[in-house]
Amino acid sequence: MFQNVGEMALLFWRAILALPVAWRQRHKVFEQFFEIGNASLLMVCLLSFFIGAVIALQTGPVLVERSLSSAVGGVVGMAICRELAPVMMSILIAGRIGSAMAAEIGSMRVYQEIDALRTMNINPVHYLVVPRLVSIAVALPLLVVFAILVGWLGGATVCFSNNQIAIPIQTFYANLRDVVEIKDVANGVFKSFIFAIVVAVVSCHQGLTTRGGPRGIGRSVTKAVVNSIVMIVILDYILTRVLLGT
Amino acid sequence: MTTITQKCGIGLQVRGLRKSYGGQEILHGLDFEVRPGEIFVLMGPSGSGKSVLLRHLIGLEVPDEGDIQLDSQPILAEDVMGKYRMAMVFQSGGLLNSLTVGENVGLYLSEHQLKTPAEIARIVAEKLEDVGLKGTEDKMPSELSGGMKKRAAIARALAIEPQLILYDEPTSELDPLSSVVIADEIVQLNQRIGVTSVIVSHDRDLSFGIADRVAVINEGRIVSIGTPEEIRRSPDPMVREFLAAGFKRPANP
Predict the structure, then answer these.
(1) ipTM
(2) Quick check: B58 and A122 CB within 8 A?
(3) Among B160, B164, B219, B228, which Cα is nearest to B197's?
(4) Shortest CB distance from B160 goes to which of A107, A113, A120?
(5) How far apart are CA A105 and CA A32, in angstroms?
(6) Is B18 an interface residue toward A (CB < 8 Å)?
(7) A122/B contact by beta carbon, under 8 A
(8) Whose CA, among A28, A56, A62, A107, lies 20 to 30 Å from B53?
(9) In B113-133, which positions are buried (b, 16+ CB within 10 angstroms) versus exposed (e)?
């Protein structure tokens, strides 16, 4: 495990050193960026709407029952922007995009395509890792901003339409505006930026270290997704403590 | 057809090369030399260490002991790989499946920004024509047959204008006619630009048909080295057995 962490740290460092070549690889960055956005937008929309809805459904009746209906917007808004949107979207991207990255690079490794790159003096980190790292690090925070807005809408819709809560949309958003500050949204977006780096590095590392045939590729994909999710959850706790200053 | 007249082959020296994987020694201190511009074939049975040796010759593996030199410079020294132009034709072709055939052939030139896109397109068309794949620029590798993939891989190697080309089993999985086409390509390329060619193969017809010199490798050791005629006359029992091997249908009971 420690060897893997060390290799991933080294891969990340090499990718950072190679960032100046990202401009040369811009068409690949845009290709990946389009792939991430296009493939995930609808899913992000659905997921975040229903996450907002279910949080409102879980917290709304309890708060209303205790005459705290004015706090529903704040609670739902805060939970989504600080925690649920960045974590859930990162997990979605780990499953959707991280797995694809590990499979593509893993199959390139197994079928000697990466060896072919090296014989042409083309650095696989420059060619494969940097475009993926840059595109996911830009795309995921943007998706999270979108997810926050849609999540709030989901929460507002449930608060308005559910008889047990029955809070007007204007009241929901007024309370949300009172409680949620711009720095709360920024914290969530910053977290997702870190998680994006984790997903890219873990997935590319798993792809580059794939051994064996199709079974090896399958193993790499599973490991990429599971390891990404575990690291996201652990890092979420650490980042939350750091960002809250507790 | 492209006409390249510059003779550009480089020599290769291997001294005391040893390599082990998981405690099992695969290469047992190999010593040999490949002369500039020659076609040198490494022949031997499956599992004899030929492909591992080839991967060392192009710097994909680091030896445990010993030294590989290109024109008397250690291959692993800084910048040596960048100084010489080398190419390898992989057993599977090694084409990038996500790129078109044309993008594959022009990959070295585009990634190193050596030519303008228009020049790259012209060179790609020329190299594909050289290997009999004219007009396949926009096809994906998955649309090509095994033989066409290998020829596309040779075209990609040609675009580098290499001084040394390594071929890993260039005729494996090919029918006899396609094998002859590939063999012709290798010889023509050698004659046209004087490139040094190192070929790993267990195909006896190919080896004796095109090689200037042949080395027979068995269990990680070179058991015989010389011209095809010298190898045919080798007294070594393993070489004799390898060359004489043929299938005989058992008599009906």
Answers:
(1) 0.83
(2) no
(3) B164
(4) A120
(5) 13
(6) no
(7) yes
(8) A107
(9) eebeeeebeebbbbbbebbeb
Q: How confident is the prediction for chain A on average, in pLDDT?
A: 92
Tell me, yes or no, if B92 comes closer than 8 A to chain A by beta carbon: yes
Position B2 scores a pLDDT of 39
Strands B65-70 and B12-21: antiparallel
Residue ranges of domains in chain B: 7-85+162-245, 96-161
CA–CA dist A58, A42 (Å, integer): 24
Query: Can you give the residue range of the structural domain that contains A167?
Result: 2-244
Distance from CA of A244 to the nearest CA of B (A): 44
Inform me whether the C-beta atom of residue A113 falls under 8 Å from chain B C-beta atoms: yes
Distance CA A132, CA A144 (A): 18
Contact B60 A118 (CB under 8 A): yes
From A105's Cα to the closest Cα of chain B, the distance in A is 11
Tens digits of residue pLDDT in B138-193? 999 999 988 889 889 989 988 888 899 999 988 887 778 878 888 888 898 888 88
Mutate which of B80, B95, B105, B111 to disrupt the A interface (most A C-beta within 10 Å)?
B111
Q: How far is A205 from chain B (nearest CA, A)?
A: 18
Amino acid of residue B144: L
> What is the predicted pLDDT for the residue at B5?
41
Report pLDDT digits (tens) over B212-242.
999 999 888 999 999 999 999 888 888 888 8
C-alpha distance from B127 to closest chain A C-alpha (Å): 16
CATH of domain B7-85+162-245: 3.40.50.300
Q: What is the pLDDT of residues B110-135, one digit of tens each?
A: 998 899 999 999 999 998 988 888 99
Question: How many CA atoms lie within 13 Å of A14's alpha carbon, on the beta-carbon side?
Answer: 16
Q: How many structural domains does chain A have?
A: 1
User: For B90-117, how does the pLDDT look when each residue is reduced to its tens digit (9 = 90+)?
Assistant: 988 889 999 999 999 999 999 988 999 9
pLDDT digits (tens, 9 = 90+) for A114-140: 999 998 989 999 999 999 999 999 999
Q: Which of A44, A3, A5 is nearest to A234 (CA)?
A: A5
Residues of A in contact with B91 (CB under 8 A): 112
